[in-house]
Each structure stands twice: as structure tokens, then as C-alpha cells.
Amino acid sequence: MCKALVWISGASSGIGRALAATLPWQEARLIDISRSEPPAGEHLEADLADPDAWKQVGRSFQRELAGWSGDRVVFVHAAGVLEPIGFAGEVDTDAYTRSVILGSAAGQALGHMFLAAARDIDAGRQLVVITSGAARSVYPGWASYGAAKAALDQWVRDVGAEQDLRGGVEVIAVAPGTVDTGMQAQLRQTAERDFPKRQKFVDLHQRGELADPDQVARDMWALLDRGFDNGAVVDLRELTPGHHR
Ligand SMILES: NC(=O)c1ccc[n+]([C@@H]2O[C@H](COP(=O)([O-])OP(=O)(O)OC[C@H]3O[C@@H](n4cnc5c(N)ncnc54)[C@H](OP(=O)(O)O)[C@@H]3O)[C@@H](O)[C@H]2O)c1
User: Fold this and answer.
1) Is 202 exposed, middle or buried (0-12, 13-18, 19+ CB in 10 A)?
2) Residue 117 maps to a domain
3) Residue 116 Cα, ligand 1 centroid: separation in angstroms?
4) In which domain, by residue range, is 13 found?
5) Does residue 244 surpass a pLDDT of 60?
6) Which residue is closest in CA terms to ligand 1's atom 24?
């Protein structure tokens, strides 16, 4: 039986919640990191748009991994927001700043803290970042969101190469496709002026073409089990075309 210790940021809803609900190991301890109580597992309450909160996450990694023995340690960074959707120079400055900090910086800082805490652990160790096709496509209204995902993608490529040289943690960024979560619902309610490509997502929803979060989560866990090149940035839609749009 595989004994696993898993942190998921953003397991209170959407894809993170589905990942928490579909953990493939029988003996798994799950710790959610988010602002609201998750439906399952332990909860570390943290507003990750506030850098002061990152330290308590780092302490959780250190505390739980000190002397830990088991087979698998995983940190999935799924927490993210689209807000504020709108053009740079037009949206609220405080909200924009929070989005830049959460989207671009939190994943790098928390990922670093996880790598530091997991360095001497004798177990399979994986660091997973949820990215997006928005890292490579142009979406007016999503500039900081797309830039954040592009930054995380490059961070994963570089850190994967570093871990190949020394460290040995497997690092991957996974784009899940277009998934039926609260984030998508929020998108459909956005004014076209703030997000001119909104109709594309309304149409996907109307045609029933949004991916099911639980299926996405199962495909992600299967991908981690199958193995990957360290530092890979993968799009789940290209790996499991039957399941995702
Ligand atoms: N849905 C899609 O189509 C899609 C496509 C590509 C990529 N993604 C990515 O997938 C990830 C999950 O998105 P989702 O669709 O599942 O969205 P979601 O349902 O809105 O879930 C977002 C999660 O992030 C957490 N979060 C947001 N702000 C936070 C903060 N300041 N501090 C801590 N946690 C915070 C939320 O928890 P609390 O509100 O409780 O804090 C929630 O658990 C995101 O990184 C997103 O960019 C989604």
C-alpha cells in the first residue's frame, strides 16, 4: 500500500477539489491550502495573494516532512484567480496587484519552499503546477493571468532541469483544458468589453464541451504515475484527446 502525503493549494473548489476527491492512494494524508474550508482533508487557511501567508505554508512543509517516512510526497499548486478580468490600465489597481502576486509569484515561492523541505526525503517527490493554454494564446482582458502562467511554465522548465542536476524532485506544469468550474462560470458573466473572447467560452459551455473536473483530476494523477520529462509543460488535451476540449 502506498503511503502518500499531499498538499494541494486551492482544494476548496474546482480542479483542486476534484484532485483531492480522486487521490489514487489508499493511505493518503491531504492538506488543502486556501481561504475557505475544503470538503475533505485538513485545511491550512491562507490567503496566497498575501506573501506574509507563504511562510506558514513553508512551515507546514518543513514540519510535516521532518522525519516523515512514506512512499510519495506531492505538492499541487492549483490555487488561482482570473480576477480582475479586464484591460491593464483600466481595472482596479489593488485587485490587479493581488492577481499578479498570486498568479506569478506564489507558485514560485511555495514551490521553492516545497523543494527545500522535500530535499532529503527518501520517497517519490513531485511538484505540480496547474498552468493554462492562456500562457501561449493572446486573450485581451487576461494579460496578467496569461503572463502569470507563462512565468510559471518557464519556472517549471528551469527548475525541472535543476532537479535533474541535483535534487531529484519531479516537476511538471499541466494545462487542464477548459474545465467546468466556478472560474468558467465567472468568465461567462464577464462583460464582453472586459473580455472580448468571452463568447468562445459561452459556446463551449452551451455545447456541453467543458471538461469534467473529476475526469481531469483522474487524468492528471494517471499522468503523474506514468512519468514525464522533468520540467515538462504538458497540455492534458493533447495526452487524453477523448476527454478534453
Ligand atoms: N477551469 C478552467 O477552465 C481552467 C483552465 C486552465 C487552467 N485553470 C487553472 O486551474 C486552477 C484551478 O482553477 P479552477 O478552475 O478550479 O478555479 P476555481 O474553482 O475558482 O478554484 C480556484 C481555487 O483557488 C483558490 N484560491 C483563489 N484565490 C486564492 C487565494 N488568494 N489564496 C488561496 N487560495 C486561493 C480557491 O480557494 P479559496 O477561494 O477558498 O481561497 C479555489 O480553491 C487555476 O490555477 C486555474 O488558473 C483552470
Assistant:
1) middle
2) yes
3) 25
4) 3-239
5) no
6) 79
